[in-house]
Amino acid sequence: MNLNNQKIINGLIIDPLIFTQKFVRACDVCICSGECCYYGVYTDKSEYEKIISKKDRILKSMDDSQTKIVEDWFEEEQEDNDFPSGIAVGTEVYNGKCVFLDKQGFCTLQKIAIEDGEDKWKYKPLYCILFPLVIFEGKLTIDDEHLERMHYCNKKENQVSTVFETCKNELKFLLGEKGFNELDEYRKEFLKLNIKENHEAA
Ligand code: SF4
Ligand code: SF4
């Protein structure tokens, strides 16, 4: 395998950084307060429509730190080819956090799905599921700019794992079982060749 060759799975270019980037072993909002949600997120237009269709259910689970004015939940639509529909819609920030983040650090979209016995990610935007992974200009990579802002999962002493290891379920969700297995094979080859090249350079 030539490390300069691009690996493409399900139409996404794979950035090998996802195999080596250090990360926490698991997210724990009791420690981090869900600070990755403090800035809002871009959703695909279809995700936005799905969320709005559940507005009455979402309202029931919001707490007093969240705005219940539905018109204040999203920004204006904008063109963005990183999204399947070609249109991105950002969530608004209210009280210093995404409108859907409650005061305990939980995403209301995930909370209602769990409370209703549905798949926990049914209403959650893909970009939220994936972080610190991100799809940028057709490449599956690390959202290093956003990760740098974090005070828990970006601290070296807490980074006892890698993004690949911690985010296996998220990668399976994105790529499917077959795509994930292909990714894992690529990872093994990449790490083997990387070790060999480093050894030869030493
Ligand atoms: S990505 Fe970081 S900030 Fe976000 S929930 Fe996980 S540990 Fe917390
Ligand atoms: S939609 Fe949910 S997971 Fe995404 S940024 Fe907002 S609170 Fe966080």
Secondary structure elements and pairings:
Layout: E1 7-9, E2 12-14, H1 17-20, E3 22-23, H2 29-32, E4 42-44, H3 45-53, H4 55-61, E5 74-79, E6 87-91, E7 93-94, E8 97-98, H5 108-115, H6 126-130, E9 133-136, E10 139-142, H7 144-147, E11 161-162, H8 163-166, H9 168-201
Parallel strand pairs: 2-10
Antiparallel strand pairs: 1-2, 3-11, 4-6, 5-6, 7-8, 9-10
The structure holds iron/sulfur cluster (2 copies).
Account of the protein in words:
With 202 residues, this protein is α+β, with helices and mostly antiparallel strands. The protein folds into two domains: 8-33 and 131-197, no CATH class; 42-124, no CATH class. Helices cover 39% and strands 18% of the residues. It contains nine helices and eleven strands. The chain has helices at residues 17-20, 29-32, 45-53, 55-61, 108-115, 126-130, 144-147, 163-166, 168-201; strands at residues 7-9, 12-14, 22-23, 42-44, 74-79, 87-91, 93-94, 97-98, 133-136, 139-142, 161-162. The strands form four sheets. The protein has a four-stranded mixed beta sheet with strand order 1-2-10-9, covered by helices on one side. Strand 9 and strand 10 (139-142) form a beta hairpin. The protein is globular and about 60 Å long. 25% of the residues are buried. The model has no long low-confidence stretch (mean pLDDT 95). It binds iron/sulfur cluster (2 copies). The site of one iron/sulfur cluster (SF4) has 12 residues, from helix 2.
